[in-house]
Amino acid sequence: MLENVQSEVESRVDYYQFERICDELQRALDREKQAQDLLNEQNNQLKSLTDILHQTQNEKDFIQDKFNQTLQNDKYSKEKIQQLTKSQQQMDENVKRAEKAIRLVVR
Q1: CA distances from 46 to 33, 37, 50, 82 (A)
Q2: What are the b/e assignments for 73-96, b being 16+ CB within 10 Å?
Q3: In the chain, what are the domain boundaries?
Q4: What's the rounded mean pLDDT across residues 70-96?
């Protein structure tokens, strides 16, 4: 029985050693909480950057669509200018022929 008590006493942890272990565990827990806070902050920053990236992509797509529309309008306008120029030339030729015809009739 005395051996059991002596064995039990020897296997017990000293109070100061127990206190040091608890302090170390508390510091480890505090470091873990700090690391978790940093991860949460980085996650929030990543989410914010992702939102900015999506918004920027949407704006880029919008601008590209407007640019494409402008190119189409420019092409359409150039075609219309060519058509109008050709019509103007034909009208000028018709006017010249009409003037010649009138001159012939007047003589």
Answers
A1: 20, 14, 6, 53
A2: eeeeeeeeeeeeeeeeeeeeeeee
A3: 2-106
A4: 97
| Helix, strand, or coil (residue 14) | coil
The C-alpha atoms of residue 73 and residue 60 are separated, in whole angstroms, by 20
Question: 3-state DSSP call for residue 12?
Answer: coil
The per-residue DSSP string of 35-88 comes to: HHHHHHHHHHHHHHHHHHHHHHHHHHHHHHHHHHHHHHHHHHHHHHHHHHHHHH
pLDDT category of residue 53 using cuts at 50, 70 and 90: very high
pTM recorded for the entire structure: 0.57
User: Which tokens hold the place of 102?
Assistant: 């009138």
